[in-house]
Design a protein that fits this description.
Layout (H helix, E strand, L loop, with lengths): L23 H7 L3 H38 L4 H31 L3 H15 L13
């Protein structure tokens, strides 16, 4: 299932790291109050803090996987287990990010949500970013 921009539902609009809730043009277009913007920023910071141990572990396990790949001496089952560790952590980070984005969108009225989608469609020409979401943000 894909959203109207071709990405899976729940992915944030625009480039990774773009704090649309703090962008003056977007805030004005959405009539987003400072209080609402601050609430979304708090949710964002809370998620970053919560996810940091997973990010750290993901980086450790991924580095281990890269070494295993380069060395090419691990048996397939050992390698498979390491891939599972890395992908499980990646999935946890993506899940956490997707839930955070859903929380953001629930803070918007339906009209604000539609306007945000329209802004990002115009501003970032959906599909032109060339890479998937960064689960750390």
């Amino acid at each position: 299932m894909q959203g109207r921009d071709g990405r899976p539902p729940g992915n944030a609009p625009g480039p990774v790291g773009w704090k649309w809730w703090d962008d003056p043009e977007v805030k004005q277009a959405l009539d987003l109050t400072d209080a609402k913007s601050k609430k979304i920023e708090t949710m964002y910071q809370d998620r970053l803090h919560e996810a940091q141990p997973w990010v750290d572990e993901f980086l450790r396990q991924n580095a281990k996987l890269q070494h295993m790949t380069a060395d090419r001496v691990a048996d397939e089952e050992t390698y498979r287990v390491q891939v599972s560790r890395v992908e499980s952590l990646r999935a946890r980070l993506i899940e956490s990010r997707t839930v955070m984005i859903y929380q953001f969108f629930r803070e918007l009225t339906p009209d604000q949500y539609k306007k945000l989608q329209d802004i990002t469609d115009r501003k970032f020409h959906s599909g032109d970013r060339g890479r998937g979401p960064d689960p750390r943000h």
